Amino acid sequence: MRVFVITGAGVSAESGIPTFRGKGGYWRNLDPAKLATREAFARDPKLVWEWYRERRQHIRNARPNAAHEAIARLAQNTDEFLLVTQNVDDLHERAGVSPEKMVQIHGDIFVTRCSRCDFKRHDYEHPPSPRLRRTSEQEHEEEEGDVIPRCAECGALMRPGVVWFGEQLPSSELQRVETYLRRGACHVVIVAGTTATFGYIVDWALRASSGGELIEVNPEETPLSQFATQRAREPAAIAMPQIVDQIISS
Ligand code: OAD
């Protein structure tokens, strides 16, 4: 069976990570859409780093929920599987989706990369236990203080390894999605916990399902709802385990 899954912030909501556009999306009365930009970073890198450090800390303390676990089960029980997540957290990975079956299309919050050259580093070692993160000495120091990291290669400011508003999607990751979609239509497409604001999300979902089964998991209506063949108007942690059980047993 060939399966394609797209997730957004709603899937991590029940792990206590606020969605962007929902309640709790604002930070110190600041709109994430205004903080997650190159302009905001150029104006006030310290403020932007403070926001990301708080989010990193929050994510480190969070645990994958039943939706992440169900998606990992689906990944492990289907012949062909690709997850495209807009989430920059690592909860899918910690639930057990292997990196080759997942594309983090908006980046990885635990990557720190140079704002000028190609240098980047992963700020957390992947620990033996998939559910816990261990901080590296350097990162711990930086998080304790309010140091803005500098590039070890060129000395420019380092920034979080995420896609900001107005930036291009990473081409290598785009290529992985394209390659998977070009291999043919999917038996099942699931889109969970996203407002599907971006055209490419709707486009990928429609291309992958190609008139076949398109399941939307979202308590609210979205631009994708009109195309869905099944709509679960429930929280992902409730709906996903049932949907995955049905797919695996069919
Ligand atoms: P949003 O915050 O826009 O939307 C979250 C969606 O999850 C909404 O449609 C909610 O109805 C739904 N939702 C809330 N709780 C849920 C739950 N328990 N179960 C299922 N669904 C739930 O987040 P995204 O759509 O992921 O991009 O946002 C897309 C992108 O916009 C983000 O990756 C980020 C943001 O700006 C960048 O940073 C480039």
Q: What labels would you give this structure?
A:
alpha/beta, Rossmann fold, SIR2/SIRT2 'Small Domain', 11 strands, 37% helix
Can you describe what's shown?
There is one protein chain. With 250 residues, the chain is α/β, with parallel strands linked by helices. It has two domains: 1-16 and 64-106 and 169-250, Rossmann fold (3-Layer(aba) Sandwich); 18-61 and 109-162, SIR2/SIRT2 'Small Domain' (2-Layer Sandwich), CATH 3.30.1600. It is 37% helix and 19% strand. The chain has ten helices and eleven strands. Strands 3-2-1-9-10-11 form a six-stranded parallel sheet, with helices on both faces. Helix 9 links the parallel strand 9 and strand 10 (213-217). The protein is globular. The N and C termini lie close together (10 Å). Residues 125-134 have low confidence and may be disordered. The structure holds 2'-O-acetyl adenosine-5-diphosphoribose. 2'-O-acetyl adenosine-5-diphosphoribose binds next to helix 1.
Task: Describe, in short, the structure shown.
This protein is α/β, with parallel strands linked by helices. The protein is built from ten helices and eleven strands. The strands form three sheets. It has a six-stranded parallel beta sheet, with helices on both faces. Strands 5-4-8 form a three-stranded antiparallel beta sheet, with helices on one face. A two-stranded antiparallel sheet has the order 6-7.
Topology, please?
Layout: E1 2-7, H1 9-13, H2 32-35, H3 38-43, H4 45-61, H5 66-76, E2 80-85, H6 91-95, E3 102-104, E4 107-114, E5 120-122, E6 124-125, E7 134-135, H7 137-144, E8 158-162, H8 171-182, E9 188-192, H9 199-209, E10 213-217, E11 230-232, H10 236-249
Parallel strand pairs: 1-2, 1-9, 2-3, 9-10, 10-11
Antiparallel strand pairs: 4-5, 4-8, 6-7
Bound molecules: 2'-O-acetyl adenosine-5-diphosphoribose.
